[in-house]
Design brief:
InterPro entries: BacA/B (IPR007607). The chain is an all-beta fold. The protein has no helices and 15 strands.
Amino acid sequence: MSYRDPVQKPALTAPAGASAKASILAADLQIDGHVTSTGHIQVHCQIKGNLAGPHLTVESDAKVQGDITAEQLDLGGTVEGDVTATVVNIHPTGRLTGRITYEALSVAAGAIVEGDLRRKVAPAQPAAAAPVAPQPSGSASE
């Protein structure tokens, strides 16, 4: 099994009426497999597999070997794999080797990024109707 194998894209939001809880993956864990959640995941452990969720925090003591898919990623640890996220914040202790596909990206001084950066374009907003200039009245007097 390769961790670079594509996996089905998870729904990144909780089902209607559900209350997604935050999950904390403690430093004493070592996970060999994919991790997916509909809530916030705070990672302190070692993961060999893909990671997906709406809001992921990879803490400075964590290492992920696999691809990450998220709406928001806060990276303070080490990631070896490709990242696809709407918002990516790489903190001073963050280390990333791989491709980052993002809409908004911030990289703090001291962070290390090795790989490709690809900005994805946000979905187009419908164009607002142009204001209509007032027309002169059609009556003319002589």
